[in-house]
Design brief:
701 residues; Rossmann fold; 4 domains; elongated; binds iron/sulfur cluster
């Protein structure tokens, strides 16, 4: 069994936290792009997104047919197709071509796949000079770094660092001025383009029906690289093949808007094998196009039910732009070669699960899934990755402890006074840190004297319907008063409210890749709730995460009719109030009288259409509600409680950034409907932080 490297990952995070502190280059760059995107994303219809997903699904389903179709087309057009099993084979093919055509200098463009196979090193070891012609790629190449972002390879560097690198390389002072930097590199590139014997590019897409290599860039360097060289080698993953040009045009509409907020990138090129001349020594010869398509785990992934979805990725980087831990530590820690959320399954596919330890940085907020235009369930792919890593190399010990969280909580809840005494004592917290792994600095909620099951009474006459209340561990054992408040509101609205037998949602099990155990919990809860759904009950969840599990993860884990049925009849509490009509609700609750509230939207309450039921609810009661899309609070259940760089420390940095933005807004207090988010906000903010249930009061008349 390979050594578990958790400690090193933690150290890497701590190092980045100290380097990037209060600067956060990834976050700044990504926020800038996200602002631009806001202006154009609404132009993409849901139908088009669905169409893009369908195109990718079918392309992967027929991957092997598409390869053969492409091969026939290329042969008929004088081009060549080679399939490389892995990176080494692909690199050898390129070296052989260089030797065959006596190439000493290669210019490269748009070639993330060549990063995957570490081609540069291989070529350089054979004495072949390689020049990256994308500005960012060139900078990281000269700095000896690897790209930290799939769109902005040098996002982690300041202009001062870039200037230093170039000064060293060119042997003369280069000022830290972006214009000057561009002009210097451009001068160098011109000379390289003219001398190069081979251009290597990647491909955003390759069209099976005509062999077109589609490249989307903002620098046009692919065109310059290819224009002056007699040999064009295309290195791309096999999954880049699309059947038709029509498919490409559909995806292009989605890709540029999602990647950089542009309607179309500055350069979108279709390089098609044909008898094109190249202007060297006045000769007129067709340019040689050689396609090296790499398998490197992709074909196996295409046959893997749990993983193939990752191959639908169109490399737009939307998931990187929103990922909270990635935005703090960047792609050198949150990545292997591929970085960010998509980098987790892609590392597993191309470099093996042994290199995916950084998946532990994923806190399962779900923001990447929401941002992905192809609707790839990255959080779940990350769980699958964690599961496979755990089964092969061992789960991190803290995760193994947290797997038994339900037993710990039930046990402690039986002796609440003693447990609370222990939890509030220094020695108790140190022991918990030592034996379980929860950071002693994290404020933990206290156990209630009685849990919800002990104080709950079935209420309501049921004239408006019947509700089964579903909670989660925190509300059930620590804050039963919120469960009772929910029940009281519903009964006043004419619903019969019951509390069925239930376990907690099981989110930590899903989150940390204990899929089999999560499935057991899902089955238990679904079976318990289904009995009631069949009798006409609606399931109303008091916690956003509980609702998220019921409506999304349980059906995914179980794939049964009853889980789908329960999901269809499930609501988040405030979503349910909106469903029955807020005008009815306001009649039974006291007005909030212009209270100024900054509302925090929990990640698991986010709806795809952007609506916010809780915000609408608070506004219907007369509150002035301010909100901002600041993303995840950083606690993410037990994730931010864990001791270490990739738990507590990272969680706190994410939370600080969120809270700072809230404190700049006009709200006099912060409110949210998630008991978990509330823990984090309350521990970091100077403003009072409240659960929504603590703000609303039922009127006496
Ligand atoms: S679920 Fe959240 S933390 Fe995990 S990869 Fe996606 S965005 Fe990042
Ligand atoms: S996983 Fe989705 S969001 Fe991330 S790069 Fe791929 S297509 Fe874009």
């Amino acid at each position: 069994m390979e050594k578990n490297r958790s400690r090193n990952l933690s150290e890497e995070v701590l190092e980045k936290l100290s380097i990037f502190k209060d600067y956060w280059p990834m976050l700044k760059n990504n926020l800038r792009i996200r602002e631009r995107k806001e202006k154009v994303l609404h132009e993409i219809s849901h139908d088009l997104l669905g169409e893009v997903r369908r195109i990718k699904e079918e392309a992967i389903e027929r991957l092997e047919d598409n390869i053969e179709r492409l091969r026939r087309v290329l042969e008929s057009r004088g081009a060549e197709l080679r399939i490389a099993r892995d990176g080494l084979e692909a690199s050898r093919m390129v070296v052989d071509l260089c030797k065959q055509y006596n190439v000493k200098l290669v210019v490269k463009s748009k070639s993330l796949t060549t990063e995957e196979i570490k081609l540069n090193k291989f070529l350089e070891s054979e004495g072949i000079e390689v020049v990256e012609t994308d500005l960012g790629e060139r900078i990281v190449q000269l700095a000896g770094h690897r790209p930290s972002h799939i769109l902005g390879p040098a996002f982690h560097m300041t202009r001062y660092e870039v200037a230093q690198v170039l000064t060293r390389y060119y042997g003369r002072p280069i000022p830290p001025d972006p214009q000057e930097i561009v002009m210097e590199v451009r001068r160098e590139f011109r000379e390289k383009y003219l001398r190069a014997g081979m251009a290597i590019t990647g491909a955003n897409f390759i069209v099976a029906e005509n062999g077109a290599v589609v490249l989307v860039t903002n620098e046009g360097n692919d065109r310059l690289s290819i224009a002056f060289t007699p040999i064009h080698v295309i290195i791309a993953g096999v999954e880049k093949i699309l059947p038709t040009t029509k498919d490409v045009f559909k995806i292009l509409k989605v890709l540029s808007r999602n990647a950089t907020g542009q309607r179309l990138s500055s350069y979108t090129s279709f390089h098609i094998p044909t008898s094109i001349s190249y202007p060297r020594e006045g000769s007129v010869k067709p340019r040689k196009m050689i396609y090296i398509l790499i398998d490197n785990g992709r074909i196996e992934a295409a046959r893997d039910r749990d993983v193939k979805e990752a191959l639908y990725c169109i490399r737009c980087a939307s998931c990187l732009q929103v990922c909270p831990p990635y935005n703090i530590v960047g792609g050198h820690v949150f990545g292997y070669i591929y970085s960010g959320p998509m980098g987790i399954p892609w590392t597993m596919i191309t470099h093996g699960v042994k290199n995916t330890e950084f998946a532990q940085l994923c806190n399962f907020c779900g923001l990447c899934k929401e941002a992905c235009p192809v609707n790839i369930d990255l959080p779940y792919l990350n769980s699958i990755t964690k599961e496979r890593y755990g089964k092969k190399f061992g789960y991190p010990s803290i995760n193994k402890n947290l797997k038994r969280y339900e037993s710990f909580i039930t046990l402690a809840a039986n002796i609440p006074s003693l447990s609370n005494y222990f939890l509030s004592s220094k020695i108790g917290r140190k022991l918990i840190e030592m034996f379980i792994g929860l950071d002693s600095r994290r404020t933990l909620p206290k156990f209630s004297k009685n849990n919800l099951g002990e104080v709950f009474k079935e209420v309501g006459d049921g004239r408006e319907g019947k509700v089964a209340l579903f909670t989660d561990a925190l509300v059930y054992y620590m804050y039963p008063e919120w469960g009772l408040k929910a029940s009281e509101i519903l009964s006043r609205l004419g619903f019969r409210v019951v509390l069925p037998k239930q376990k907690s949602s099981g989110m930590p099990l899903i989150q940390y890749g204990f899929i089999d155990e999560a499935r057991k919990i899902a089955r238990y809860n679904v079976e318990s709730l289904y009995d009631l759904v069949e009798k006409g009950y609606k399931v109303v969840s008091v916690e956003p995460t509980a609702h998220y599990c019921l409506t999304y993860y349980y059906p995914k884990l179980l794939d049964t009719e009853i889980s789908k049925n329960v999901a269809e009849n499930s609501f988040g509490f405030f979503e349910f109030l909106k469903y029955i009509g807020l005008s009815k609700v306001t009649k039974i609750l006291k007005s909030l009288d212009d209270m100024k509230i900054t509302y925090h939207l929990p990640c698991h309450s986010r709806s795809r259409d952007g609506s916010m039921a809780t915000k609408e609810f608070l506004e219907s009661l007369g509150a002035k509600v301010f909100t901002k899309d600041v993303g995840c609070c950083g606690l993410a259940g037990t994730w931010g409680m864990k001791k270490g760089g990739h738990g507590y420390e990272l969680s706190i940095e994410i939370g600080r950034i969120v809270v700072k933005q809230y404190e700049e807004m006009e709200g006099e207090l912060i409110a949210t409907e998630s008991s978990i988010c509330l823990q984090q906000l309350a521990s970091l903010s100077k403003l009072p932080c409240n659960h929504v249930f603590d703000i609303v009061e039922i009127s006496s008349d």
